[in-house]
Amino acid sequence: MSSDITVTRVIEKLPSRFQADAAGSLDAIFQFLLEDDDDFYISIKEQTCTTEQGEHQDPSITLLMDADTFIRVVTGEQDGMSAFLKGQLRAEGNVMLATKLGKLFKNKS
């Protein structure tokens, strides 16, 4: 894992990696509660993606993990399902949304 990858840098790049066509009519809030970093959420609506720091009052799904797990999953070093099965990631709310998350963002180019 590259040492220059941080949660903040990942959050900043998410909108540019968003694939609007993959979102279709999705309208969802993905809340990330990180045990050892700042919380944030991703809002997907009308084929647009925005990120905000903090906690949303009514997220569609909440994903709880530490920053290292988040970075490993986002960079593809670890599969999200693997992290979930190992207890490194917990999901609350509409957990089926978690399966769509990876398809909404293109890999680094």
From TrEMBL:
Signal peptide: none annotated. GO terms for cellular component: cytosol. InterPro entries: SCP2_sterol-bd_dom, SCP2_sterol-bd_dom_sf. Residues 19-106 form the SCP2 domain. This is SCP2 domain-containing protein. It comes from Neptunomonas japonica JAMM 1380.
